[in-house]
Amino acid sequence: MTKQTQQLRIGLLGAGPWAESTQAPALAGHPDVVFSGVWGRRPDAAATLADAHGTAAFTGDDGIDALFAVSDAVALALPPDVQAPLAARAAAAGCHLLLDKPVATDVAAARAVATAAEDARVASVVFCTLRFAADTAPWVAEQAAEDGWFTAHAQWLGSLYADEGSDSPFAASPWRREKGGLWDVGPHALSALTPVLGDVTTLSAGRGPADTVHLVLRHASGASSTVTLGLSAPGKAAGTSLVLLGERGRAELPDGWGDPVDSFRTAVDALLEAVRTGKAHDCDIRFGVRLTEILAEAEAQLAGEVP
User: Fold this and answer.
1) Alpha-carbon distance 201 to 35, whole Å?
2) Does one domain contain both 114 and 172?
3) How far from each other are the two terminal CA atoms of the chain, in whole angstroms?
4) Within a domain: residue 307?
5) HSE (side-chain half, CA atoms, 13 Å) at 209
6) If 0-12 CB within 10 Å is exposed, 13-18 middle and 19+ buried, where does residue 267 land?
7) What is the pLDDT of residue 109?
8) Are residues 141 and 108 in the same domain?
């Protein structure tokens, strides 16, 4: 039995740039949410973020359990392999889960979160931005409702690491630098492709310049897709596109993803609906596990291993 009040009390695990710019303001401004607190690995960052939004700060290992105790759900804004064990721990404490992508970069860790959520019967949503942004979410749903797609090409190229002097706060992320575009932007591409073309049945992966990765995917519908991912493209080469080709002709993902705070509030709405109805959302932890499985298979191929 999970904890529940009239408004959902949601705590935030993480106090870094993404939490500061997106999750915290979205939770603080949501009319159906009580922002129950912020836990951070750095006490000063947790205190600063909590003070900015009029909530409590929690630190240390005991602080994690204390935040769970005053929360019905938790949102997570942490590196994926820090996120996964804390998400499993939150689920075991009866907290619903609003996870960031990727859920983990290790398949066993991702599956452990799914098992914990299932055992505790808590709801879960993975915040894949395209599936919640005002322009792109309806586009994905519209294309998924159509048959006859033949092939697709997706390109997610960022310039985060094109220059060593990048002033982006995300450039300093150790996990992002280690794992590259495959794990950082790969979930975005897959979150839009798989609802439309079906699950990935086979894949081939190859390396491009710097951290660039090329994927060739076959989908359950019989359609194929190619995906180019990276964070080190020259500035003028960076950009995002997704084009579908099929019996209806060509369909292209709309430009712009809108305000991430608004998109995250929509993800909160999705979690609230899943809690209220007991019906799993399409972007639940099981979807997050599948993304991890696909990306891990690609990573294994790139490392010359047999997955």
Assistant:
1) 41
2) no
3) 38
4) no
5) 9
6) buried
7) 98
8) no
Q: What angle do CA 37, 41, 43 make, to 5 degrees?
A: 70
- Are 11 and 75 spatial neighbours (Cβ–Cβ below 8 Å)? yes
The C-alpha R_g of the chain, in whole angstroms, comes to 19
Instruction: Count Cα atoms within 13 angstroms, Cβ side, for 232.
Output: 15
Q: How many domains does the chain have?
A: 2
b/e map of 276-302 (b: 16 or more CB within 10 Å)?
eeeeebbbbbbbbbbbbbbbbbbbebe
Choose among 259, 200, 261: nearest CA to 20: 261
Instruction: Output the domain CATH number for residue 84.
Output: 3.40.50.720
Token code pair at residue 212: 């660039």
- Domain span at residue 123 reads 8-131+260-283
Which residue in 78, 62, 1, 5 sits closest to 36, CA to CA? 5
CA-based nearest residue to 103, from 290, 298, 268, 288: 288
List the pLDDT tens digit at each of the 307 positions of the chain. 445 447 999 999 999 999 999 999 999 999 999 999 999 999 999 999 999 999 999 999 999 999 999 999 999 999 999 999 999 999 999 999 999 999 999 999 999 999 999 999 999 999 999 999 999 999 999 999 999 999 999 999 999 888 665 667 777 788 899 999 999 999 999 999 999 999 999 999 999 999 999 999 999 999 999 999 999 999 999 999 999 999 999 999 998 888 999 999 999 999 999 999 999 999 999 999 999 999 999 999 999 854 4
The verdict on residue 303 lying in a domain is: no
